Structures are given as C-alpha cells and as structure tokens.
TrEMBL record, chains A, B:
InterPro entries: HTH_MarR-typ (IPR000835), MarR/SlyA-like (IPR039422), WH-like_DNA-bd_sf (IPR036388), WH_DNA-bd_sf (IPR036390)
Keyword ATP-binding part of the UniProt annotation: no
Organism, as annotated: Ancylobacter amanitiformis
PANTHER family: HTH-TYPE TRANSCRIPTIONAL REPRESSOR YETL (PTHR33164:SF43), TRANSCRIPTIONAL REGULATOR, MARR FAMILY (PTHR33164)
Ranges where the HTH marR-type domain occurs: 1-116
Signal peptide range: none
Official protein name in the record: DNA-binding MarR family transcriptional regulator
Pfam families on file: MarR_2 (PF12802)
Keyword annotations: DNA-binding
Entry's Gene Ontology molecular function annotations: DNA binding
Entry keyword Hydrolase: no
DNA sequence: CGGGAACAATCCGCTGCCGTAACGATCCTT
DNA sequence: AAGGATCGTTACGGCAGCGGATTGTTCCCG
C-alpha cells in the first residue's frame, strides 16, 4: 500500500529530520550532493557523470565537484570505463551504503515517532 | 497511528524529494535554513535569535544570516520585542506559510506514489 | 545611577559551491 | 590517417555560508 501521510505530518517529519541533520556534525551533504548519492545507490548502474548531470538537470562540473567531495568522504568512488575510456563509472562503496542505511533507519525512526 | 515506513521506502522518498528540490529552480534553502524555517512555523512562538540558535545547536550569527537570507525571500520577518528591546521576534509571513504548505503537499504526493 | 550581563548584528578571513568557458583525452567516421 | 564529436576535468571569477571575535543597545541589579 502507498504510504499514508498528511501534510502536517510531512512537515513534522521534515522538521525532525532537518534538526537531526543540523545537529549531527556528520558531513553535511548539500541537497545536490544527496540527490547524486541517492541516484547512484537507488538507480540501476552504470552511472556516468553525463548521465547524472542530465538526470538532475545540472551541469557536468557540478557532478564532478560533488563526486570529488563525496569521494574524499569515501561515499562513492570512480573508475574509468575500459570499454570506452572517455567515460567514468561511478561506483558505490561500503561506507556509502552504510551512510544511506543509517539515513534510512533514521527516517523510519522519526516517522514512527510522529504523532497521529 | 504512527506512520509506517520501511527503510527502502524512506530512501526512495528522500530520493524523489531531493530530485524535485534540485530540479526546481526555487530558492534552494540550505539544511540549516530549512531547519530554522520549520522551527519558526511548527514550534510555539515567540522565536528569538538566541532561542533558535540554542535549539539548532549553532551560533547566533548563523541564525542572523539565515534570517537575512530568508527575510529577503519574504519567508520570515523580524520585529523588535517592545517588552524587551534587546530581543528580536521572528515572525511568520504569508509567503512562508505558502512555501511550507507546498512543501508539505509535495512530500505527501511523493509518499503516496511510493511503491508498496 | 552606574557597571556588568544579555542580546542581536556586524566584521574578518576562510572555505566551498556555483556557472561559464576552456582543455586534454578518447572515440567515431570517412 | 584526420577531422570532428563526445566525455570528464580543470581554470576562473564570483557569491554565500561558516566560526570567532567584536560592537552597539538595552536591560538588570546592587
């Protein structure tokens, strides 16, 4: 079944999530970075810079820079496509999977605590 | 009843929301700005700079700057507390309420479209 | 009434992200 | 083999946010 949610609950959910994110001194991903990370982990590979840029409606340098940042955090990694060496394949990492797993659990926990 | 949500659904929800936010060329609020905005609209007034800073665990200049930015977008407004003129009371605006209303509806729509 | 406390705003230097425009490498087509 | 197209990256100048320290008001209390 679809997830039932009223607007007031939705805003409370966002509120709790944003408070948790701000207070965590965890690496504070920007909206664009998070969108890229989720695309890499939730959509079917392979992922290229160009593909992600088109998917998000942003320019390629934006993707490159986001990958630089998240690569330094070990949330994603890059590899040359040997079949077409112009392409770069974006790969998932253990740390990235763990990061998103925690994030998902956090959302679930907040949702469960939401007032009726 | 609490909102039922599985981790995979939670991540899909975040994915759709972040994609929508990135593609909208709407004023892209930072996580901190959104947290402040939601606190102002969802928690009981009055709201002061100091109170919000303590609530989010950030410094006061962060709140002042966020209010500058969101004030320019007419999402919030400021007023001197006449009872204690050291304080600044953060007030809601029609535009801000509308902004959050749309945001809440968007979350609901995405949640409803989530696969079982 | 005077000195200190509380509050918000501002200043400072720094870091990170932005968009545009280039660039080098690689592929494809002829 | 050569020209053009495609891909990712980098260079550049600009803008916004950050933390920490400081300032100017206003209040409080002895």
């Amino acid at each position: 079944m679809a997830v039932e949610l009223r607007p007031s609950q939705a805003l409370r959910l966002l509120h709790e999530l944003s408070l948790a994110q701000v207070r965590d001194d965890a690496p504070d991903l920007s909206p664009r970075q998070l969108a890229i990370l989720l695309s890499v982990y939730l959509e079917t590979p392979p992922h290229t810079v160009r593909g992600l840029a088109a998917r998000l409606g942003v320019t390629k340098p934006v993707v490159t820079r986001a990958l630089d940042t998240m690569g330094a955090l070990h949330l994603v990694s890059r590899r040359r496509d040997e079949a077409d060496r112009r392409n770069v394949i974006i790969q998932r990492t253990v740390e990235g999977a763990l990061y998103l797993e925690k994030l998902g659990d956090q959302v679930v926990a907040v949702a469960r605590a939401l007032p009726r």
